[in-house]
Amino acid sequence: MMKKVFVVLLCVILVCGAFGACAKGNKTDDTKPSTTREITTDDAVIAQEDAINLIKSYSREELGISKDDMKKCSFLVKSAGVKYQNHYYINVIATIKTAHEDTTNAEGEKVTSYTFDNKGEYFIRYDGKEILAKNGTDGKYRKLKVKAVPTTAPKEQEHDKDAETSK
User: Fold this and answer.
1) Cα separation of 102 and 115, whole Å?
2) Global model pTM greater than 0.70
3) CA torsion, points 9, 14, 19, 22, in degrees to nearest 10?
4) Are 120 and 142 spatial neighbours (Cβ–Cβ below 8 Å)?
5) Pairing of the two strands 110-125 and 87-104
């Protein structure tokens, strides 16, 4: 009889422990950006080139990038969105790409490899009403003043507009 009670008690403890561990694993830290699953950027009012143009419209001081680094930086937009503090953001990275031509592949041929040195990370909220810049010193995000979105107009549309006004 004592063995049966002990086995039942052990099973109850084991089941409670398993459910407790599962519940504990579901908590997320909303103070850090989350990219655990693919987040589509279809709902964003700004994307791709417009997101890059918006970030590049800020001064290097606002972006937190040195003068020398700003000259070398390329700006890239991540294909997936990011969830941060219950909002979704477009993620723009300022990076310096460096080529290394002294690398050899498995066949012994010289190939070029690249390294990327990220100099800044920026979030543009999907509705365009908030822009954040990551601090290099503490990794926290600070708000930038929201600017109007500079758009990229196709060349032929601009040309057609000029042609209509000259008639």
Assistant:
1) 13
2) no
3) 160
4) no
5) antiparallel
**Are 44 and 81 in contact, with CB atoms under 8 Å apart?**
yes
Q: State the SS3 of the chain.
A: CHHHHHHHHHHHHHHHHHHHHHHHHCCCCCCCCECCCCCCCCCCCCCHHHHHHHHHCCCHHHHCCCHHHHHHCEEEECCCCEEECCEEEEEEEEEEEEEEEEEECCCCCEEEEEEEEEEEEEEEECCCCCEEEECCCCCCEEEECCCCCCCCCCHHHHHHHHHHHHC
The torsion angles phi and psi of 36, rounded to 5 degrees, stand at -70, -25
Q: What are the tens digits of pLDDT across the range 137-150?
A: 788 899 999 987 66
What is the residue type of 154?
A: P
